[in-house]
Amino acid sequence: MSHIVNIQTEIRDVEALGAATRRMQLPPPRYEEVQLFSSRATGYAVQLRDWRYPVVCDVESGKVAFDNFDGRWGKQEELDRLFQSYAIERTKLEARKHGHTVHEQALGDGSVKLTVCVGGVL
Question: What are the CB-based long-range contacts (under 8 Å, 24+) for 19-23?
Fold first, then answer.
């Protein structure tokens, strides 16, 4: 039996965030205070490709601070890829922690199908 799940992503897991940046071939997240255009943010900073300012993840609240000036300082697609990569890596870590196996399949529209098999066998 399969199930479709919609997820609103909060970034709360530093290990999954690190796995997401590796997946995207980005530098690892660094805990720091960062100057955005008109504000400062503290948390795990991730420098996305071609973004003027980093994305800052507060793992305590799950909130993400960023300033891409409606796409002028960074493409929304890169932030979407970070959220997608984080969700995939977080799901894989949690499933494996419980002894389940995970199969990942990239789909033609850019989405990813994850199959989690309870009991460890696909």
Answer: 19/85, 19/89, 19/92, 19/93, 20/82, 20/85, 20/86, 20/88, 20/89, 21/46, 21/82, 21/85, 23/85, 23/88, 23/89
